[in-house]
TrEMBL record:
Superkingdom as given in the UniProt entry: Bacteria
Organism of origin: Williamsia phyllosphaerae
PROSITE patterns: TRYPSIN_HIS
InterPro entries: Peptidase_S1_PA, Peptidase_S1_PA_chymotrypsin, TRYPSIN_HIS
Protein name, entry field: Trypsin
Length: 246
């Protein structure tokens, strides 16, 4: 997961690195397309995920490194806030990973598509029929204004968000957007209300300081992975990967 350094280090690094203008993260309204991801047998969420539009209506997207070494249940809770699940709890039934991540943990393929199943409170409806049309996946571009929304790790009850402008660093999509702490891995980079062009992940599992975040590359490989998940075939087993090197 992304890491956070102490305030003094952040201030010094900010002065040295610079970068695009950014906002500081603040509590934001819960978004029905974005939710907390509970990985393993725990009541503490560890990552963020978001629904993506599909024929089946039951797909969500997150960072692949969020699934490292986990064999227990995975649960997605859209619009999670104050320990409530206003749109139900959704069990992940299959995980789909890019071959580049499976074989070598290519940081630009650090994304996972998850197929989910409703709990009884949703009367077995699809995710998109409950929360609305999922995000459309767009292509990354330099100089794009984005809004990032996600959940800090643990039992934090409110989503946080910030705004920034995209650039490229370390050969990876990058955004300067302050306050994206541990747990915001998987958070969408939104252009407008319905399109995502990146997510917190990729290089160093999203970054080593809270004001600079990275993303895997959104391109035809991700589109193909979404299509494979939408077809409902066999899923993949997440490989074990090391911690971010910061």
């Amino acid at each position: 997961m992304r890491h956070v350094l102490i305030f003094v280090v952040v201030v010094v690094a900010s002065a040295l690195i610079g970068g695009a203008a950014s906002s500081t993260s603040i509590d934001v309204h819960a978004n029905r397309r974005i939710g907390a991801l509970f990985v393993g047998d725990t009541d503490r969420h560890t990552c963020t995920a978001e629904s993506v539009h599909s024929r089946s209506g039951d797909l969500v997207l997150t960072a692949a490194h969020c699934l490292t070494g986990e064999t227990g249940p995975i649960t997605y809770v859209p619009a999670y806030r104050v320990s409530q699940a206003p749109f139900g709890e959704w069990t992940v039934t299959s995980v789909y990973l890019d071959p580049g991540w499976l074989t070598g943990q290519d940081v630009n393929r650090d994304y996972a598509v998850l197929r989910v199943r409703s709990d009884p409170t949703t009367a077995h409806r699809t995710l998109e029929s409950v929360t609305g049309r999922g995000f459309t996946v767009g292509s990354f571009g330099i100089g794009r204004a984005v809004r990032v929304v996600g959940y800090g790790a643990g039992s934090g009850d409110t989503p946080i968000g910030c705004r920034g402008r995209t650039r490229e660093a370390r050969d990876s999509p990058t955004v300067t957007c302050r306050g994206l702490v541990d747990g915001t891995s998987g958070s969408p980079w939104m252009t407008g209300r319905t399109t995502t062009i990146g997510l917190v992940g990729g290089y160093n599992q999203g970054g080593c300081v809270s004001f600079i975040s990275h993303s895997p590359v959104f391109d035809s490989d991700l589109t193909a992975l979404i299509a494979r998940a939408d077809d409902g075939g066999p899923g993949d087993t997440a490989p074990s990967t090391g911690a971010a090197v910061c």
